[in-house]
Design a protein that fits this description.
By secondary structure, this protein is of the alpha/beta class. It contains 19 helices and ten strands. It has three domains: 132 residues, Rossmann fold (3-Layer(aba) Sandwich); 170 residues, Hypothetical protein af1432 (Orthogonal Bundle), CATH 1.10.3210.10; 74 residues, Molybdopterin biosynthesis moea protein, domain 2. This is Response regulator c-di-GMP phosphodiesterase, RpfG family, contains REC and HD-GYP domains.
Length: 401
């Protein structure tokens, strides 16, 4: 029963103008799978773009419109993990080569196909799709974990630059949910790496830029090359090609202003880049405890630079989130009583010179707690440290009884 429920969720695309083929698929599989049939290529591609959860895509070789080879190749860019199968009456070597080499078809079936062969082919294709999905998920978790470790290390050497990544990541996921953005993995990675370009710049230039002081032509040139440097660092890392592009375009205004000069405008800018642009500027306009009405008023002065829908959603969701955030229990802890999962309310500073050790909004782990302990033993850390603790201690409950 559980297997049947799982199968019923799988989406199978069939692109073939032959009504008998479409009826055959529905008769064989509609009780266990979602079957969507199309008679030409463009309608099928539009559906796939709106429903990028397809597990298996069947196409006939002589598909009206783009043709079966071009259709499967185009579908791969939308749903790369879907298994693609070519159906054809063509038996030439050239047809087989195009199906396998150009369309990257997993399988090639001669028409007419026996019901038993079609059932077997679909089961094999689904097993391949499941395997590829698990491999991709494992790769993403591994890469995400590696990047989080890298960010933790960079935050030690560039705390001012990387202090915003933790709160911005949470805000970005909230906006992604509000906009029904299905795939958030690349957005999360882009947010975590967004300060990378800033970390590469001289602190004097960053300080002048954020204080709205005039820059020399040479300083402006260095600042403008920052997104290029970030893209160069990331673009050759497998699976981070899109992330590098998001960061490259995150300085681009919705109205076409900003960097790069000849970049996309409006909704042609990737939504992840638009989110990063909005949240970065919101961070610098906000007080220590998070966005407030004044911060959004500051952004409204140049509202043409931001996606109006994202700006509205951010104001609606983030202000309410801050109010809930402030209601959570805040504990005053010495370092030896900090716990993994605690979230810093304030920046952690050294005792003497008040240098930044770890930024506000940072969720604590065993590694970061050990780091704080190390700083405390060597340079001294201002204590107690205020943290948000989701589990309210028993003594706090006793105080309020």
């Amino acid at each position: 029963m559980e297997q049947t429920k799982k199968q019923a969720k799988e989406l199978i695309i069939v692109a073939d103008p032959d009504q008998k083929v479409q009826e055959g698929f529905k008769r064989l599989f509609s009780s266990h799978y979602r079957i969507q049939c199309f008679s030409e290529s463009d309608a099928g591609l539009r559906f796939i773009k709106d429903n990028p959860s397809a597990a298996v895509i069947f196409s006939c070789y002589n598909l009206p419109g783009r043709g079966g080879v071009a259709f499967l190749r185009a579908s791969e860019t939308i749903v790369p993990l879907a298994t693609r199968i070519m159906l054809t009456r063509e038996s030439s070597v050239e047809a087989v080569k195009k199906s396998l080499n150009e369309a990257h078809a997993f399988m090639f079936l001669d028409k007419p196909v026996k019901s038993t062969d079609l059932i077997s082919a679909l089961e094999t294709a689904l097993a391949h799709h499941t395997f590829m999905s698990k491999e991709r998920a494992l790769l993403e978790r591994t890469l995400s974990g590696s990047i989080k470790m890298l960010i933790d290390m960079l935050a030690v050497f560039h705390p001012d630059a990387f202090r915003r990544t933790a709160p911005m990541r949470k805000q970005a996921l909230m906006l992604a949910k509000a906009t029904s953005l299905r795939k958030t993995w690349e957005l999360e990675i882009a947010v975590m790496l967004s300060p990378l370009g800033e970390a590469l710049l001289p602190k004097e230039i960053i300080a002048k830029y954020r204080a709205a002081r005039s820059l020399t032509e040479q300083e402006r040139d260095v600042l403008n090359k920052s997104p290029d440097q970030t893209r160069e660092l990331l673009k050759n890392i497998p699976q981070l090609e899109k992330v590098s592009e998001y960061l490259y375009l995150s300085g681009r205004g919705f109205d076409g202003s900003g960097f790069p000069k000849d970049g996309p405008v409006g909704e042609d800018i990737p939504v992840a880049a638009r989110i990063i642009r909005l949240l970065t500027d919101l961070w610098y306009a906000s007080p220590e405890d998070g966005p407030d009405a004044a911060a959004f008023e500051a952004l409204a002065i140049n509202r043409q630079k931001y996606d109006p829908n994202l700006l509205h959603l951010a104001q609606h969701h983030l202000l309410g989130d801050i109010e809930e955030h402030r209601k959570k229990h805040i504990s005053h802890c010495y370092i030896n009583s900090l716990r993994p999962g605690d979230i810093l309310v304030d920046d952690v500073l050294t005792e003497g010179r008040h240098e930044l050790v770890l930024s506000r909004g940072h969720p604590l782990t065993l590694t970061t707690i050990r780091r704080l302990d190390h700083f405390n033993r060597t340079a001294g850390v201002r204590q107690p440290v205020r943290v948000i603790r989701h589990e309210v201690p028993a003594e706090a409950l006793a105080d309020t009884a």
